[in-house]
Structures are given as structure tokens and as C-alpha cells.
Prior knowledge:
InterPro entries: Tektin-like (IPR048256), Tektins (IPR000435). The chain is mainly alpha-helical. About 85% of the residues lie in helices and about 0% in strands.
Amino acid sequence: MGPPDRFLPSEWKHANQEHYRSSEAGRKHSEKLTAECERLIEECNKSNKRMQHDTQKRLERRIQDIKFWRQELVQKFEQMVQEIETLIIYKSRVEKALESCSEPFQVTLQCLAERQKRLAIDLVHDEVEEELLKEKEVVEGVMVLLQRTLEQINEQIRLIRSVKYYLEKDLQDKFQAENIDDFCSLLTNTSPDLNEGNSSFKYSGAAVTPEEWESLCNLNISKAEKEKNNSLSLRALVDSLLEQTARDMRRQYETTGRAFDLRIEETKTAKEQLENQLNELLAEIANQEKNQDALRLAVAEKEAPLKVAQTRLSTRSQRPNVELCHDPPQIQLLAQVKELTNHVQRLSEALELSESELKALAYNQLRLEEEIQVKTNSLYIDEVICHQLHQHITIQSF
């Protein structure tokens, strides 16, 4: 290697000045960059504090919104729970009312069946039967109406339970969301277990706007309010229905009871009249039997005088020659025989008439006794069986 190059003093000065200028420019640029970085840091810090403060306020406001809607949802949820319990009580009332219709309905059917056992002319379509048929229609109508009402209550319970389910689900979501936002609002820059910066977070497609979120809350509350109003209307209807049906059934059973009383009284009166007529008929039969005895005795009493008169005529017919004249005794005897024969004939005819009359009286006696038996049977059915069954029915209000 050869010796190093030799530079001139001017070159040396120029080189030093170049190093100075370069170093000065680098220093100034560095100072400028430092100042810019300090300004950027301060700006970022201010922006971060502002953003964190704004985020904290918005989180707190959001938490307040969630709490408000949670309170509204809790109120509606409790109302739905209470309404379900109330409807279950109403359902029990309707079930008991429907069950209570069974006994009166069976009694009505039994009364109708028993009254078919009435005999002869008493098997009549009377007022009692009309009222029993009305009673059957009333009870059947009440049972159908109560069954339909029970189905409506079950359907309303189902609807309210559906609303309660969605309210409960919404409350759970809001409870979880409130806990998450509470946790987020408590986070600070010095909080432990902070996640590493994750700039890749993206909203899922299921995200909704605040307006949609509030609209969904309102929708659940509106559904709850609607079903509550429907339930209140249904409960008012059930109260009115139970009262009206009990009143209708009670009124019809009282009407039927009065018809029974009237019919029983009419039957007793008819039976008493028939019994009085039978007693009079029996007395007349006894009189007619005495009359027959008197007629027979009268006929028997006429036999001896008739024989005497006939014997006298026969004997006087043996008078000789001119003595066989038509004298006054002969005339009297002929008249006597004729009259006695006429008397015997008339008495015999009267006896035959009396015997015929006695047969007619006996036939009437049999008819009266049969009719009295018919009335006795009807009284037993109406008074002993049906009326007592009917009196034990109690129409309750549930």
C-alpha cells in the first residue's frame, strides 16, 4: 500500500463544515420529530381520555336504558305470572261449575225416565214434563257454554305463558347484557387481565340498531299488555257467565219445582175426588143389592096370592051347569090374577134392570179402583221419587 492521500487545508475546513451542517440538520430534524411525537402523544392521550370518558358515559347511559327496560319487563313478567295464577283459579272455578252440572243433569234425566212409568191417562205431556225438558236444555246449554269457556281459558293461559317465555328470555338477555356492560364500565387502563389488542373484532350479522332493540322491547311489552287486557276481559266474562248460568239453572229448577208441587196437588185432588166417588159408588152398590133383595122378596110375596087366585079360578070352573056364571067373584078373580101376573112381570123386569145396573156399578167400581191405582202410582213417581230427588239439588255459584 502506498502512503495516504494528502488534503489541502481548504478541503479539511470544507469537510468539517459539511459534517457540522449534516449533524446540525440531523439534530434539528430529530428535534422537530421529537416535538411532533410529543404533540402526537399529547393529542392521542387527550383523544383517548375523551373517547374513554365518552365511552364510559355511553356505557352508563346504556346500563340505565337496560335497567329501565328490565324494570318494565320485570313488571310485565310479574303481571303475567300473577295473571296465569289467576286464570288457573278461574279455570278451577269453571271446572267445578261444569262438574256440578253433572248431578242436576242426571237427576233431570232420571225424573224424565221415571215419569215414563206413569200409567194410562196419567202418561200425559203435562207442565212438569215441559219444564223438565226445558231444564234438560238449560243444563245442556250451560255445560256446552262452560266447556267452551274452559277451552278459551286454556288457550288464554297458553298465550300468556308464551308471552311470559319471551319476556323471561328477554330479561335473561338484558341481565346478561347489563352484567357485561357493568363489567365494561368498571374496566380501567390498569385493570388486570385486559385482552391483547384485537383489531379483528367484527359485528355479527345478528346485530340490531338501538331503535330496533327498543322496538323489540316495546313489542314484548305490548304483547304482554294485550294478553293481560284479553285475560281481564275473559275473567270478567267468566264472572258474568258463572253468575248468569247459576241464576238461569236456579230459576229453571225453581220453576220445575213449582210445576211439581202444582201437579202433585192436582193429582192428590183428583185421587181424593175419585176416592169420594168410589165411596159413593160402593154405597150405591150396597143400596142396589138391598133393592134387589127387596124386589126378590116382593116377587116371592106375590106368588102365594097369585096361586090362591089361580086355585080359586080353577076350582070355580068346576061349577055345574048354569052355576058356571061370570059372576062378580069370577070377574074379581080374573082381574086379580091379571094384576098379580102384571105385578110379578114388572117386578121381574125391575130385578133384571137392577142386576144390569149392579153390573154397571161394579164395572165403574173397577174403573175407579184402577184409576185410583194409576193416581197412586203417579203420586209415588212425582212426589216420592222425582220431587224428593229434585228438592235435594243445590245450584251453587262458583
